[in-house]
Design goal:
By secondary structure, the protein is α+β, with helices and mostly antiparallel strands. Helix content is 38%, strand content 18%.
Length: 640
């Protein structure tokens, strides 16, 4: 067996990237065969975002173990959970005196590998991955990053659904480079042998892609209001054009058009992908996406409820809907009567489309009706109940037609959200919250398996926390984790449970620093000091005043206090821009993902600002300290 000496520790900084942690901590591994510590292996994160893999809970870490493995001339370390299921595998495929660190980093979900990143050219080894693969239940994507800067430049394989997910993330992050990685290249057009006129058409579309991309972002204000969730891709069966028909070298398989349905903040919207062409195992786009539902060509064969009818009446109404959406007024702080009027008109059109569509094809339009009526109700002028009345009528109709059904649940939850949004503007906030708890409770009882049930359970936990009913909050969070363990909300709920039990326990916080992602801060290095951990974001109006108060505390109490500021902005630039004009204080941390990032998820931080006060021994003394009495609380701890 080739011994793995942990030059890993000395070389770790060479292969640290955005998303991969430089693990100098391997130096601490002094056991037989220099086995790395469990906590060290757990610090590694996938370079690419969106990977769903098993992350052990803090209380489970004691049962984890690391084993050495060897196969096909290579060797490495496998991290397993208490049941023996794999969690991580860091492997060296070609151990030599000059190459003695991992070149494969694999991640598992429920014991099955779902994601792997590796460096393919070990002759010029740099310790940075250039290949990224999603496997088994994780998908089929295979991306390549020759520059080794963490950004995929091309795809060796990717499905149409995964293309649409990448398009949505490119729009949400305003990342045109991510979109460009999906576009067909000259080499691929040559591979297909496309005729010159088709190549010219595609190249012209690509020239306008950047401008069109920016316009689409502007046309989708929902993307700026939160993190979008991909729902599904709607498309007819792909078309196959024989090579001889167009003078190509190979048959051309393509989707003439397809639509992405996404959800953000409880409302849905659409994006059109444009044409997609298959090149080997990868699907390519030829232009930038556009906002709107579009119309999907109906396939022959068995009916599919996700396909839009091509009946001329339906097509005409869809075109009318698209034009109406193009003229939509800007959104703003409710009430916004102009926006309410727009969504009422939109609902009128949606009702006509649904009436003209085949029964099995009505569901997407009915869902949009519920979304538009909910938006209209929340933006109506005080005393104008027209939108709410229509929404309640839709809810009742759907509940009567299919009691307990998905559509009834969908409409009910939108009506509840609209009603709650209106109520909290009328004063008596605590009463509104109590009524919200009652409605949420009835919803999860009536629709326990609804797609909105995880969100409703999370809301129940959050609102009970606000009402200082922490036992009830923990119970609801627990129901969410038990009934929907793979839902994104379950991660937040798990963290919230940990937060509610945090006082008297060590705070675990390991995160890249804001200015240098390769530098990792671990709160253990601040033991001996009183530590204030402040979770914040630039979009929160309270942050400016809070930083002034944090600086006053730091200046008054001196070196015995450490201020640690954890930023939860979606874009790191927003944090830098804010801090350029804010009082300079403390250590600043950042990990991508905003309110869904690991630092936020670890302790279920869902409302900002959020402060923890940590004693000199590293244990939390107050998990809900307030900024206004922070100085007094710090003084008490310093006096101990």
């Amino acid at each position: 067996m080739a011994t793995i000496t942990w030059k890993w520790a000395r070389k770790a900084a060479r292969w640290a990237m955005a998303g991969c942690v430089a693990l100098g901590g391997f130096v601490a591994a002094r056991a037989a065969a220099d086995t790395p510590q469990v906590t060290i292996m757990l610090r590694y994160k996938p370079t690419q975002d969106g990977v769903v893999y098993t992350i052990p809970k803090p209380e489970e870490e004691a049962g984890l173990k690391v084993e050495s493995v060897q196969r096909n001339g290579g060797n490495g370390w496998l991290l397993k959970d208490a049941a023996g299921k794999p969690l991580r595998l860091f492997f060296n495929t070609n151990p030599t005196p000059t190459h003695n660190v991992p070149d494969v980093w694999a991640y598992y979900k429920d014991g099955v590998e779902v994601y792997r990143e590796f460096e393919s050219d070990t002759k010029t080894y740099t310790g940075k991955p250039d290949q990224f693969r999603w496997l088994n239940g994780g998908g089929m994507k295979w991306g390549v990053d020759e520059a080794k800067d963490g950004h995929i430049k091309r795809w060796k394989s990717i499905s149409p659904e995964e293309v649409s997910q990448e398009i949505l993330q490119a729009l949400a992050n305003k990342d045109f480079g991510r979109l460009q990685a999906l576009m067909i290249t000259d080499a691929e057009m040559a591979q297909l042998g496309l005729p010159a006129d088709e190549v010219a058409r595609i190249r012209q579309l690509e020239k306008t892609a950047a401008e069109k991309f920016q316009k689409t972002i502007a046309d989708l204000p929902k993307l700026a209001s939160g993190k979008p969730n991909w729902v599904h891709l709607e498309a007819s069966a792909p078309e196959c054009t024989p090579a001889e028909q167009i003078g190509a070298r190979a048959d051309v398989v393509q989707y003439p058009h397809a639509s992405i349905l996404f959800e953000v903040g409880g409302a849905t919207d659409w994006v059109q992908t444009g044409e997609m062409i298959q090149v080997g195992a990868a699907w390519r786009i030829i232009e930038a996406p556009t906002a709107g539902a579009g119309a999907v060509v109906e396939q022959t064969g068995p009916s599919d409820p996700n396909k839009v009818d091509t009946d001329p009446k339906v097509m005409a109404l869809v075109n009318e809907l698209t034009k109406l959406d193009e003229a939509a007024p800007p959104s703003g702080t409710p009430p916004n009567p102009a926006l309410a009027k727009h969504h009422l008109a939109r609902t009128d059109l949606l009702e006509k489309i649904a009436a003209e569509s085949k029964p099995e094809q009505r569901e997407p339009w009915v869902r949009q009706m519920a979304d538009s009526l909910s938006t209209a109700a929340q933006n109506s002028a005080p005393g104008d109940a027209a939108a709410m009345t229509r929404l309640q009528a839709l809810e009742q109709t759907l509940a009567k037609a299919a009691p307990g059904g998905d559509l009834a649940a969908y409409a009910t939850y939108r009506e509840m959200q609209a009603d709650y949004a209106v109520r909290i503007t009328k004063g008596d906030y605590a009463k509104s919250q109590a009524e919200w708890v009652d409605r949420l409770t009835k919803f999860v009882e009536a629709y326990p398996k609804a797609e909105d049930a995880p969100d409703a359970l999370l809301q129940l936990g959050m609102v009970n926390e606000f009402l200082n009913k922490e036992v009830e909050a923990k119970n609801w969070y627990g129901v969410l984790v038990k009934n929907f363990p793979t839902a994104p909300q379950a991660t937040k709920a798990t963290g919230a449970i940990a937060r509610l039990d945090l006082e008297g326990k060590p705070l675990k916080l390991t995160c890249p620093t804001l200015n240098d992602p390769q530098t990792i801060y671990n709160i253990e290095q601040s033991i001996g000091k009183v530590v204030v951990v402040y979770y914040w974001a630039s979009w929160n109006s309270q942050s400016a005043g809070d930083f002034s108060k944090l600086k006053m505390v730091a200046d008054a109490e001196g070196k015995g206090v450490e201020i640690v500021c954890v930023n939860l902005d979606n874009a790191v630039k927003d944090a830098h821009d804010f801090l350029a004009t804010a009082p300079q204080v403390g250590v600043h941390l950042y990990q991508s993902g905003g309110l869904d990032s690991k630092p936020a998820a670890d302790y279920g931080v869902m409302v900002l600002p959020n402060l923890f006060l940590v004693g000199k021994d590293g244990k939390v003394v107050n998990r809900n300290v307030q900024i206004n009495n922070l100085d007094d609380e710090v003084k008490k701890q310093l006096a101990k």
